[in-house]
Amino acid sequence: MDADLFLKFKKKLLREMLSLANERFSISGNFSVLFPEK
User: Fold this and answer.
1) How far apart are CA 1 and CA 22, in angstroms?
2) Which residue from 24, 4, 26, 27 is spatially nearest to 16, judged by alpha carbons?
């Protein structure tokens, strides 16, 4: 595999993972607002 191509792929993967984590975080944040722990 071309090293440059691999780097681009890694960056893309990292970005997708970050946005996914962001979505999860905001969702769990919304849940803590909807269902505050007693």
Assistant:
1) 30
2) 24
Task: Say how many Å lie between the first and final Cα of the chain, rounded.
Answer: 53
Our measurement of the distance from residue 3's CA atom to the centroid of its chain's CA atoms, rounded to an integer in Å, reads 24
Q: How confident is the model over 1-38, as pLDDT tens digits? A: 689 999 999 999 999 998 888 787 777 666 666 666 65
- CA pseudo-torsion sign 23, 28, 33, 35: positive
Token pair 């893309």: residue? 12
